[in-house]
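[[Encoded backbone]]
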Amino acid sequence: MSPVDQLAQFTREALLAGQSRDEIATALREAGWAETEVQDALGAWAETDHIPPVPRPRPYVSAKESFFYALMFVALAMTTWHIASLGMELVERFFDESHAYILNRSLRWSIAAIIVFFPLFMLLQRSETRTLHRDQSRRRSVVRKWFGYIALFVSSMALLGDLLSVVYALLNGDLSLVFTLKLAVVAAVAGTVFGYYRNAMKDAENDL
C-alpha cells in the first residue's frame, strides 16, 4: 500500500472512530506528515457528522476525454495560428506590395486552415458546453484543466513575446507602422484566448 493510500485509510478509520478533525490533524503532524498532506487527507472527506464519512468529489482522468481535448487543442492552435498569420499577411498585403505572390499562396493556405479547423473547434466547444451543462461532474476532469492551463500558458508566452518585441523595437528604433499592426494582431488573438481560458479555469477551480 502506498503512503497516500495509508494516509487515506488512516483518516477514514479515525473519522469512523469519532475522532475530531483537529485530533486527526495533530496526530498526523506529530507522525511527520506535511501540512499539505494533512489538509489533503482531511479535505477528501466532507465536514459532516454522517457515519461512515462522506467522500468529497475528486478530480478524474478519462482516456476518452484525453482524445476529445487533444483534438480540441489542435483545432484551437491551428485556428488561432492561422488567424494571426492571416491578419499579419493582410497587413503586409496593404503596406508591402512586393510580397504579393508569396502572400497570395499564404493567404489561401491560412484561409483553408481556418475553414477546416475553426468550425471543428466551435463544434467541440459546443459539445463541451452541452456536456458540462448536462453533467456537472465533468468539470472535475483533470484533462480539461490541463487543456485550459496549457492554452493559458501558450497565450501568455505569445503576449510576453509580443511585449518583448515592442520593447526591443523601441530600443532599436524599428517600431514601424507595419510592425506595430502585426504585434496588435498577435496581441488581439492571444489576449482573446487568454481571457477566455482564464475565466474558464477560474470556474474550474471553484468547482473542486
